[in-house]
Amino acid sequence: MAEIVWEAPQFEYYPKSALWYWTTILIAIIFLAFAIWQKNFLFAIFILIAEILILIWGNEKPEILKFKLNDEGLYIGENNFYNINDIKSFSCAKSVFPGFWDFKIYFKRNFSLELKILIPEGFYEEIKDFFLQKNIKEREYEESFFDIIQRLIKF
Asked: How far is residue 80's CA from residue 54's CA, in Å, rounded to a whole number?
């Protein structure tokens, strides 16, 4: 079977206003005050580190990655490969990111997390058919708790 090649952003990006950054800082200050009031200095250090990471990662724009799907598996960028034999099932749903579908891949290993990637609308049917021809089952798309939180806070 021929290979399918496409490009897509690494993750869904939500532009953030100054209000978003000030809100995260305010929430961190509240948690920091609570930690100090409780004399839990380890929690206070955790809050500081977490807020610094939120500010850095919140400003990060997604890299455009090249995806390649063939009989061997899924290649993402230059360094990531997922063997087709390790994939148990997949699910997909229209993304909140215009022009894309959310595509989740579930692995056979119990401790493997699902892999969520974006696929352009024009490749949706072709990729779905590829997985179905490989006898990889489609399952109902379930948005995880972290997906919901990420979408709500636009992270």
From this structure: 25
On the 0-12 / 13-18 / 19+ scale of CB atoms within 10 A, 146 is: exposed
Q: What is the pTM of this model?
A: 0.73
Q: Which two tokens stand for residue 133?
A: 């021809």
Q: Are 121 and 99 in contact (CB under 8 A)?
A: yes
pLDDT of residue 155: 65
Residue 5 half-sphere exposure, CB side, CA atoms within 13 Å?
A: 4
List, for residues 56-74, the tens digit of each pLDDT value.
988 888 888 899 999 888 9
User: Exposure pattern of 26-43 as b/e (b: 16+ CB <10 Å)?
Assistant: eebeebbeebeeeeeeee
- Write the pLDDT tens digit of every residue in 2-59: 789 988 888 877 788 899 899 999 999 999 999 999 999 999 999 999 999 999 988 8
CA distance 89 to 80: 19
Burial letters for 109-124: b for 16+ Cβ neighbours within 10 Å, e otherwise?
Answer: eeeeeebbbbbeeebe
In eight-state DSSP terms, residue 85 is G
